[in-house]
Design goal:
Helix content is about 70%, strand content about 0%. The protein is globular and about 50 Å long. The N and C termini lie far apart (about 65 Å). Helix 2 (about 45-65) runs parallel beside helix 11. It has 13 helices and no strands. By secondary structure, it is mainly α. The longest helix has about 30 residues, at about 260-290. The protein folds into two domains: about 1-30 and about 40-115, no CATH class; about 140-325 and about 345-365, no CATH class.
Length: about 400
C-alpha cells in the first residue's frame, strides 16, 4: 500500500487519541460535551484499542508489506469511529476484536518466516489483546479486561525492544531472565480471572522484573550517550522503564484489581508513564516511515516529555489523596462527576498539554520538508601546464 493510504490510518489513530483524552478530561471533572450519556466508560478502549491498537497494527502492516495486513488498522480505526459516533452497541467492539485477530495473523506470518523469541513475545501480546477484547465483548467489566490489555502493550513493546537488542548478542542467561519475566507477567494476568488481587500482585512482579531487564539490557543504555534524536529516544525509553517498575511496585503492594485510587494509579503508571513515553520515543522513527517524510529533530521535543512525566508524577499521589479523603471506597474516584463550576485539576491540563504539544511539534516537523543537504565542494580544476 502506498504512502498516501497510510496517513488516513495514522490520522484515525490520532483522532482516537484525541477523543480518548477528551473523555479522560471528563473523568477528572472537566465540563465538556459528550454525544452519548454512557460513553464515558469507553475512555480505556479508545486509548488502547483505538489509538495504540491502530498504531501497532499499522506499524506491523508496513513491516510485513502485505496488502491484506492493512485490514487490521482499518478495522480498529472503524471500530473506534463506531465507538465515538455510533450509538452504544456491539459493532465497535466487534470491529476492534476483528482487527486484533488480523494482527495475530500477521505475527503468524512473521513467525513462519523467522521463528524468534521477540516475534513470539509480540504474538503473545496480541493474543492477550484478543483475550481482553473477547472478555469485553462478552460483557465482562472493563476492569476485568484491562489487565489483558496491559499484557498486550507491555509484551508488544518488550518484544520490539528485544528485537533491537539482537545486535548486542545477548547471552543465554540474559535471555532466560527475559523469558522468566514474561512468564511471571503472563501468569499474573491469567490469575486475574479467578483470583484478581493475587493475579495483580504476581503481574506486578513480572512488571518489575521486565522493567529491570529492559533498563539493564536495552540498547538505550548505550545510545543515551549519543547526541541528537538518538539520545532523545533513549531517554524516553529509560524513563518509561522506570514507570513500568513503579507500576509493578504499586501492583505488588496494593493488589489493586477493582476500580479505585490504587487501581487508577496502577493503570496510569503503565498507560501514561510507560506506554506514552514509548510512543514519544518511537515517533521519530515510526512517523517518517509511515508518512515517507524525513523528521527534523529539535530540542523542543523534550518539553512534552517533561510535561508528561510531571503529569504522571502529580496524578498518582493526587488520585490517592483525593480518593482517600472520601473514605477509600471501591468506586473509581477519578470518574466522579463534578459540577461545571468545580475547579479543574492541573494534572489533566498537564497530560493534555504533553500530548498536544508533542503531536503538534512532531507532525509539523515531519510534514515540513527537510532542508536539502549541502552540496559537496567541487573538485579543484586541473592546473594548466606551465609554458616553457
Amino acid at each position: 500500500m502506498r504512502h498516501r493510504w497510510r496517513a488516513p490510518l495514522l490520522l484515525a489513530a490520532v483522532l482516537s487519541l484525541t477523543w480518548g483524552a477528551w473523555m479522560g478530561l471528563l473523568r477528572i471533572g472537566w465540563a465538556l460535551p459528550l454525544p452519548w450519556p454512557d460513553q464515558l466508560i469507553l475512555h480505556g478502549p479508545l486509548m488502547i484499542g483505538g489509538f495504540l491498537g491502530t498504531l501497532i497494527a499499522l506499524e506491523r502492516a508496513i513491516g510485513i508489506a502485505k496488502p491484506w495486513a492493512y485490514a487490521a488498522p482499518l478495522l480498529t480505526a472503524a471500530g473506534s469511529a463506531a465507538l465515538v459516533f455510533g450509538p452504544p452497541g456491539p459493532l465497535g467492539p466487534a470491529l476492534i476484536i476483528s482487527g486484533s485477530v488480523v494482527v495475530f495473523a500477521v505475527f503468524g506470518v512473521v513467525l513462519r518466516r523467522e521463528p524468534s523469541l521477540f516475534a513470539a513475545t509480540m504474538a503473545l501480546g496480541v493474543a492477550a489483546w484478543i483475550t481482553g477484547n473477547a472478555r469485553w465483548i462478552a460483557g465482562a467489566g472493563i476492569y476485568r479486561a484491562v489487565f489483558w490489555w496491559v499484557g498486550f502493550i507491555v509484551l508488544t513493546i518488550a518484544g520490539e525492544r528485544l528485537e533491537l537488542s539482537r545486535l548486542r548478542r545477548l547471552r543465554a542467561p540474559v535471555r532466560l531472565a527475559f523469558v522468566a519475566a514474561i512468564a511471571v507477567l503472563g501468569l499474573g494476568i491469567a490469575l486475574t480471572i479467578g483470583w484478581p488481587e493475587s493475579g495483580v500482585r504476581v503481574m506486578g512482579g513480572g512488571l518489575v522484573m521486565l522493567g529491570a531487564w529492559l533498563g539493564a539490557f536495552d540498547v538505550a543504555r548505550r545510545t543515551v550517550r549519543q547526541p541528537g534524536v538518538t539520545r532523545f529516544i533513549a531517554i524516553c525509553l529509560l524513563t518509561g522503564y522506570a514507570w513500568l517498575g513503579v507500576a509493578g511496585a504499586i501492583a505488588i503492594v496494593t493488589g489493586a484489581a477493582a476500580p479505585g485510587p490504587r487501581y487508577d494509579a496502577l493503570l496510569h503508571a503503565i498507560f501514561l508513564g510507560f506506554a506514552v513515553a514509548m510512543i514519544f520515543g518511537h515517533a521519530p522513527i515510526v512517523l517518517p516511515a509511515v508518512l515517507g517524510t524525513p523528521l527534523r529533530f529539535r530540542l523542543a521535543f523534550y518539553v512534552p516529555l517533561v510535561v508528561l512525566h510531571c503529569s504522571v508524577a502529580v496524578r498518582i499521589p493526587a488520585t490517592s489523596s483525593t480518593c482517600s479523603a472520601s473514605g477509600g471506597r471501591g468506586e473509581d474516584c477519578s470518574t466522579q462527576w463534578r459540577s461545571p463550576r468545580s475547579p479543574r485539576i492541573p494534572r489533566g491540563r498537564l497530560r493534555r498539554l504533553a500530548v498536544d504539544c508533542f503531536r503538534r511539534s512532531t507532525l509539523r516537523l515531519t510534514i515540513r520538508p527537510a532542508a536539502p543537504a549541502p552540496r559537496p565542494p567541487a573538485p579543484p580544476a586541473p592546473r594548466a601546464a606551465a609554458i616553457r
